[in-house]
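PROTEIN DESIGN WORKSHEET
SECTION A - STRUCTURE
LENGTH: 395
TOKENS:
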């Protein structure tokens, strides 16, 4: 059977995960990534938990991920003097296995590159569907025709904009901004983290595999503003009076070469496909913090590839089944993540104290089982479907 050609826009997590399965299934697969090379920065580490480990095993990437895991321990909640207030157990933020985003991107690239064409430094500028395929234009490369197009290009998806319309029609902002970067480790931590809150703001500093550096994440609640401004200036303004060792963080921020910055948002679409074009991962749903976004992106890639195989390439049937199977876990995760601001950036000192009190109880030895269940409930989506995918490793 002839398998149609597929263009995947986006080389982060969802894109190479889909390329892994489609390439092995015999689809001529092309991945186009706007960045000039694999990205070396992102919004901090990502984690996997519960049922997601079985999927990683099926992809034969679990061993590589474990070999590069952060080994992160507990996150200690401190006050402005550095005094310990409570602890967030590693199960909350780090799952069963945690890995830095660039390491995961590299692993997925290495596992997909032999079965897919990769194009860096380019992006889709036009999509025109005809009866027999999709004509695609690019910012730099020559126009090409594909049988199917997949938008796996994140929250600000260009494929979604070209196919469904302006992002503002589908994006729901959760009232949070996030900035992330790495800096030298001046905090004396190793495989652990520090969490500091003032009303409406959070600073997280964590040290994983490389003890010489720390990952910094800053979150704050704010009405949506024009975030095209220099993120360094915006962060410095928001955290200027935050206390603790935040001045050290802001000093480092001025010199770092790369800063991740964005709104914390969700995407809500009535449909994830139109004709021969389909969306995957954050481009389709973007769950938000605590929503198992990375795990769902990889599960969605597996499901989409599997349904294309079952439908013998009939994209209408495959797209419909893919969406039917993914809607429930995505909706569950979006509901969980919608309350992120209340947990991450409590609005008052009293609410910060109440949150810390709850987590002191949950992290006690007597509550370990309940806490573990709570941390995995959006990841556990049930048994993985069996698909006729070459190279599938069943466990």
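SECTION B - SEQUENCE
RESIDUE ASSIGNMENT:
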């Amino acid at each position: 059977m002839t398998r149609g050609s597929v263009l995947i826009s986006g080389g982060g997590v969802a894109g190479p995960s889909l390329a892994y399965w489609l390439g092995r299934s015999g689809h001529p697969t092309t991945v186009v990534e706007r960045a000039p090379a694999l990205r070396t920065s992102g919004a901090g580490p990502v984690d996997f938990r519960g049922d997601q480990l079985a999927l990683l095993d099926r992809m034969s990437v679990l061993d590589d991920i474990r070999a590069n895991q952060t080994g992160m321990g507990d996150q200690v909640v401190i006050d402005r003097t550095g005094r310990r207030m409570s602890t967030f157990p590693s199960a909350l933020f780090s799952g069963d296995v945690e890995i830095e985003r660039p390491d995961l991107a590299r692993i997925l690239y290495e596992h997909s590159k032999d079965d897919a064409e990769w194009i860096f430094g380019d992006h889709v500028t036009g999509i025109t569907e005809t009866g027999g395929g999709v004509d695609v234009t690019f910012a730099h490369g020559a126009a090409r025709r594909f049988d199917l197009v997949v938008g796996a290009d994140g929250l600000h998806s260009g494929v979604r904009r070209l196919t469904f319309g302006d992002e503002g029609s589908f994006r729901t902002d959760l009232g949070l901004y996030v900035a992330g970067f790495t800096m030298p480790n001046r905090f004396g931590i190793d495989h652990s983290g520090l969490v500091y809150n003032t009303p409406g703001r959070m600073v997280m500093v964590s040290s994983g595999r490389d003890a010489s550096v720390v990952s910094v994440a800053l979150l704050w609640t704010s009405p949506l503003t024009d975030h095209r401004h220099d993120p360094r200036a915006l962060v410095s303004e928001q955290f200027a009076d935050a206390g603790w060792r935040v001045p050290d963080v802001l000093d480092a921020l001025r010199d770092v070469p790369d800063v991740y910055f964005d709104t914390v948002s969700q995407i809500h679409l009535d449909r994830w496909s139109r004709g021969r074009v389909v969306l995957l991962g954050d481009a389709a749903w973007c769950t938000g913090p605590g929503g198992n976004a990375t795990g769902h992106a990889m599960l969605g890639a597996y499901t989409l590839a599997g349904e294309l195989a079952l439908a013998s390439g009939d994209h209408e049937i495959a797209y419909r089944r893919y969406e039917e199977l993914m809607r429930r876990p995505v909706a569950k995760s979006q509901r969980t993540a919608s309350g992120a601001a209340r947990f991450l950036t409590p609005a008052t000192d009293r609410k910060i104290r109440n949150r810390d009190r709850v987590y002191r109880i949950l992290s006690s030895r007597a509550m370990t089982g309940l806490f573990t269940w709570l941390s995995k409930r959006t990841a556990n989506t049930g048994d993985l479907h069996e698909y006729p995918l070459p190279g599938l490793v069943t466990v």
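SECTION C - NOTES
Residues 315-337 form the longest helix (23 residues).
Residues 29 and 124 are 15 Å apart (CA to CA).
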